[in-house]
Specification:
Elements lengths: L2 H22 L1 H14 L12 E6 L5 H10 L4 E10 L8 E2 L1 H14 L5 E10 L14 H21 L6 E6 L8 H14 L3 E6 L9 H11 L9 E5 L12 H9 L10 H12 L3 E6 L22 H15 L5 E9 L15 H6 L9
Parallel strand pairs: 1-2, 1-9, 2-4, 4-5, 5-6, 6-7, 7-8, 8-9
Antiparallel strand pairs: 2-3
Helix pairs in contact: 1-2, 5-6, 8-10
Length: 371
C-alpha cells in the first residue's frame, strides 16, 4: 500500500470515528453546535448578552414571507413550530408531522448565514387544528409524558435541533392541565438535556389575579412556585394578559393598566407578578408570545382574535408600544416574540399592522442586557 493510500485510509478512519463520537456523545455535539453558531454570528447563548427580538411563525407560514418579515421587523430570532398531530383533547399519544419537519428544515437552510437564532417548538395540532392546547387534558398522564418525551421531543431533537444547530428548544406551551405535574416536567427537562445541549425553555400561559378573588392568588402562587422553572435556561410566558375595559385606549392608559389592570377592577400588577418569576428562580423572562388582534378591544382579551370585527390597527400598535415602554429597559427581561408572522393573509388578525411595524422594528435596536 503506497503512502497516498495509507493517508487516505487514515483520513477515512478519522472521519468515521469523529462521526461516531458526534453521533453518540451529546457533549461533543453541543461543543460543535456552539462553535458553528458562534461562527455564523448567532447571539443566543447561555450568557444572554443580547436581547431576543423574535417572531412566532404561523403553522402555515410561507418561507419567502418569513424571510421578508425578518427584514421588515428587524428580528434576530425565529420561533419555528413543528406540528404535532393529536387526535382529540383527551389523547395521550401524538405524532410529529413529517411535512412540518421538512418545511422547518427548508427554512433553516434558507436562514444560513443570516445570523438568525432559532427556537424550535413542538406545536400541538389537536383535532386538525380545531382545538387549543390550553384545553388539552390527556386521559393518562403517565402515557402522555412518555410519548411527549420519546415520540415528540426526542424526534425533533434528533431530526432538527442537533443536526441543524438549533439554539433553543421550547419543550411545551400553555399546557394548563399538565403543568401541575412538576416532577414529570423536571424529569422531561433532564431527559432533553441528555440529548440536546442548547438552551431549554417552557412557555407558561397568562394568568390573572384579583384581591377580591383569593383563589386566583393561590393559583398564581402555585404557578410561581413550580420547580420546573428552576431547571430552565429562561422562562417563557405567553403574554395575553387582560388589561383594560375599553374598546380603544391611549398608550398611557394601556401602560398604566399593565401595573394595575382595569378589567373587572382586578388591579393586577402584571409587571410585578412577572418579575417575581425572575426573583424567585433567577432566570431571564421572555415573552414567548406577544400578540394583539388588529381590532377594537385588543387590550381587553388579547387571546381572542374574534371579539369583534371592527378593524383597529392603531389599537394593536398602542398595545405593543405600552409593552415596549414597560419592559424594554428592564435588565431581567430577555425579550419578546411577536405573534404571529410568516403569513399575512386577511384572516391573520395578529399579523402586525403598518402602525405596529415601526414600533417592533425599532424595539431593541441598540439595547443590551447588563451582565
Amino acid at each position: 500500500m503506497n503512502k497516498k493510500k495509507v493517508a487516505a485510509f487514515f483520513i477515512v478512519i478519522i472521519i468515521i470515528v469523529t462521526s461516531y463520537i458526534i453521533k453518540t456523545n451529546p457533549e461533543a455535539r453541543g461543543i460543535i453546535n456552539k462553535k458553528i453558531n458562534k461562527f455564523q454570528g448567532k447571539t443566543l447563548n447561555e450568557e444572554f448578552e443580547t436581547k431576543i427580538k423574535s417572531g412566532n411563525l404561523s403553522t402555515d407560514y410561507n418561507i419567502e414571507q418569513v424571510l421578508s418579515d425578518v427584514d421588515k421587523f428587524q428580528l434576530n430570532t425565529l420561533n419555528i413550530p413543528i406540528v404535532i398531530n393529536i387526535d382529540n383533547l383527551s389523547s395521550s399519544s401524538m405524532t410529529v408531522d413529517k411535512g412540518s419537519e421538512d418545511r422547518a428544515k427548508s427554512l433553516i437552510k434558507k436562514l444560513k448565514g443570516k445570523k438568525i437564532n432559532i427556537i424550535l417548538e413542538p406545536y400541538p395540532w389537536i383535532d386538525n387544528g380545531s382545538k387549543y392546547e390550553t384545553a388539552w387534558k390527556p386521559d393518562n398522564i403517565n402515557t402522555f409524558f412518555w410519548n411527549w418525551k420519546n415520540n415528540v421531543l426526542k424526534v425533533i431533537i434528533d431530526d432538527i435541533a442537533v443536526p441543524y444547530h438549533v439554539d433553543a428548544v421550547n419543550i411545551g406551551s400553555s399546557f394548563v392541565n399538565m403543568e401541575y405535574a412538576e416532577g414529570y416536567w423536571c424529569d422531561t427537562i433532564d431527559y432533553v438535556r441528555l440529548y440536546y445541549k442548547g438552551l431549554v425553555t417552557y412557555r407558561t400561559g397568562w394568568w390573572y389575579t384579583a384581591e377580591w378573588k383569593p383563589e386566583t392568588i393561590k393559583l398564581y402562587e402555585k404557578k410561581l412556585n413550580n420547580r420546573m422553572f428552576s431547571k430552565l435556561d429562561f422562562i417563557s410566558i405567553a403574554a395575553y394578559f387582560e388589561l383594560t375595559d375599553k374598546d380603544t385606549n391611549t398608550v398611557d392608559n394601556i401602560t398604566s393598566s399593565i401595573e394595575s389592570t382595569q378589567l373587572y377592577n382586578r388591579k393586577q400588577n402584571i409587571k410585578q407578578e412577572i418579575k417575581n418569576f425572575h426573583d424567585k428562580w433567577n432566570k431571564p423572562i421572555f415573552f414567548g408570545e406577544l400578540g394583539f388582534p388588529k381590532t377594537n378591544k385588543a387590550s381587553v382579551h388579547p387571546w381572542d382574535p374574534y371579539q369583534n370585527d371592527i378593524v383597529n390597527n392603531v389599537e394593536q400598535a398602542n398595545c405593543f408600544e405600552a409593552y415596549r415602554r414597560t419592559f424594554e429597559n428592564e435588565s431581567w427581561f430577555l425579550g419578546f416574540s411577536i405573534f404571529a408572522i410568516g403569513e399575512n393573509s386577511a384572516d391573520k388578525r395578529y399579523y402586525p399592522s403598518a402602525e405596529s411595524t415601526p414600533i417592533i422594528k425599532n424595539w431593541y435596536n441598540k439595547v443590551m442586557i447588563k451582565k
